[in-house]
Design brief:
By secondary structure, the chain is an alpha/beta fold. It has 22 helices and 13 strands. The strands form three sheets. It has a six-stranded mixed beta sheet, with helices on both faces. The chain has a five-stranded parallel beta sheet with strand order 6-5-7-8-9, sandwiched between helices. Helix 13 crosses helix 20. It starts with 7 loop residues before the first helix and ends in a 6-residue tail after the last helix. The chain binds 6-O-phosphono-beta-D-fructofuranose. The site of 6-O-phosphono-beta-D-fructofuranose has 14 residues, from loops. 6-O-phosphono-beta-D-fructofuranose binds next to loops.
Length: 553
Amino acid sequence: MNRLTALPAWKALWSHFTRARDWHMRNLFDEDPGRAGDFWLEHAGLHLDYSKNRITTQTLTLLLQLAREAGVPQRIAAMFAGERINTTEQRAAFHVALRNRSAQPMAIDGEDVMPKVQSVLHRMAAFSDKVRNGEWLGYSRQPITDIVNIGIGGSDLGSLMVCQALRAHAHPRLNMHFVSNVDSSQLKETLRRVHAETTLFVIESKTFTTQETLTNAHTAREWFLHRAGDASAVASHFVAVSSNLQAVRDFGIDPRNMFEFWDWVGGRFSLWSAIGLPIMLSIGERNFLDLLAGAHSMDQHFREAPLERNMPVLLGMLGIWYINFFGAGSHVIAPYDQFLHRLPAFIQQLDMESNGKRTTRDGTLVDYETAPIIWGDTGINSQHAFFQLLHQGTHISPIDFIASLDSRSSLPGHHEILMANMFAQAEAFMRGRTLDEARAELLAQGLDAQAVARLAPFKVFDGNRPSNTLLLDRLDPFCLGALVALYEHKIFVQGTVWGINSFDQWGVELGKKLAHGILLEIEGAAPSAERDASTRQLITLYRQHREQPQKDD
Ligand code: F6P
């Protein structure tokens, strides 16, 4: 692996940056009337405007040169060839096979995985159909009305985000619930809203060892047995999604009620697998296949389009430009669509768990920044909350504005206001407002010269804050699939440039291990001699508190 900072394009970009950092996007737009058209790309119902970035065509040429020198084309080919690119775990990262809608085989070590992918899809479809059409009956012979997904991280966020996003396609009888937090409040509140006779629990865990998920699953099963009074009823109310057959069996779920996926599917890339069962239950097989088809279309584009017209590559390299050259430490996801309100949280896991690393694939430490902090919320709400900092604060945080062209609703005026605000924000971030403009506006409002001089500095916006605008034809399964795949691949491109493995997550291990020991101490074991004084003190306070009578909510 070549050292990133020694690559010729890296050096050329630094020299280019010494000029580029002083450009203002206002001037770039004024100087080039073709800019909006040149920096525009469409694929799979997604329209990307990336003209409001601090770039020229020369910047892009150099960034794409860096992508080539860092081996992006070879790594794309390796991923689609099923190579074990997750090197620390010796696994392929083959989520692209899950949404392969072509007739082409996709193989790992010569074994075509498509037959087993198809077979699980068929089982999911057969099961979902039965639940959706009311054929699958609970222990009191009633159809299912509520689905409770129990899982966390990649076994929660993807299905949750998609089910929320595609609510317009949801089955009218099926209420979807997601329990991830081991804080009992979430499970209790959910169980208060459902009835045992008509509830289906989907226990999702790739490893089937995750403490939070298994604790919630055990509690849910106790709650259920208490009501059903018969262990044989579990079979029609609990199904599992996992890659660990033995652990599912040990939990007491019949393997016939298990939907399998494989070690080559990373948790945060798994919504396309059986982990997407809640999605299929909610929106049905046809819509689920459309979701896969949208992702597949983006996969084909990623694999085949030249780097200059390759959406994930462009977004990835624009991110590199800001993170590594401008020093931007964060990136905002701002969907202007209520149904996409969990998208920022989903992309947060996808990006930060994939690229939040400092060791390169060959085991050396990086000497440059890697993944940004991903944050965000629905754009319109954010305008009235944290956009102040983005407009006038001292941080530069590029923003992705995301919205659907189609309004989905017949309520007059709402969508137009939403879109006007989104376009206005992107414009304001780009143009800003100069001191002269601020003065002129205040004078036009009738303020006297003294008041104008006093207030004008507060009304200045530097602008020059970069953003991408992504418009979906409509928020349907196909476009959503393409959107999610776009971000997956963008993240892979960045991980490749930084030389890191985007598919492991060793950083989550240490806390989990310590929590196991601390739980024993909370429950009475002697404190470990290795425990620091602060942690010991916290455990002692908690133990003392626990000994007092507790009030149940
Ligand atoms: O702790 C992090 C993590 O391992 C994620 O990577 C994963 O998505 C999540 O926990 C859930 O893991 P599992 O599906 O094995 O329960």
